[in-house]
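[Automated response] Your request has been received and processed.

Submitted sequence:
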Amino acid sequence: MKMPLGILAVVAIILMSFYLFAPRPGPEALQPRTDLPWQITLNPDGTSRVFDLNLGRATLADAIAKFGPVDGIAIFEPASGPLALEAFFDNARLGPLKAKVIVGLDADPQTLAALRDGSRGREGSPSGDWKYPLGTVPADHAGRTITVLTYIPGTRGLDQAFFLERFGKPAAWLRESEHAVSWFYPQLGLAILIDDEAREALEYVAPRDFVMPADVTPYTEAP
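Generated structure:
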């Protein structure tokens, strides 16, 4: 059955109205993204750029401009290893992607110990690590350089094929537990924890600062 020409004309007018009066996307929406987790740019000085931040030069203030307000700042004390100053962004958004982001900040050992000793309490974990929340405001640490950035995707269950497609084969891998393995990309300054029972985590440092664990296995095939 043929549709009457009058109806076709009305439909055409409606469609044209949608086209003419629909809001135009802003310039930002039309620009290709440069801040996705697998978009890593290497710099000649051994630093890298990821999430539009230059690791090795970017500061906490730059991270706040990128990810939004800080949700917490704390001293992290691992069961074995040095103290670390960390800032947390619990609901960072990069286009359609949602994640938790943790940035490690540069501070000397004396400052880290003083911040820990002046903290408002501590939180333990089964692994024996301790977290000391700080009462300081982000502005107190805004000028500190980012030394490491950890990206924890909001999407769970990302498998090895997902990371192979985006980053290629790693240089080495390490079995962390029965259900978790770490992949290492020293040329990118990247380590990826792939966990079958928890969220994956991507840890970025400037490639010049990347240290490969001693007990890794060279990658020949997927572990």
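Summary generated for your ticket: The longest strand covers residues 84-94. The two ends are 61 Å apart (CA to CA).
If you did not submit this request, please reply to this message.
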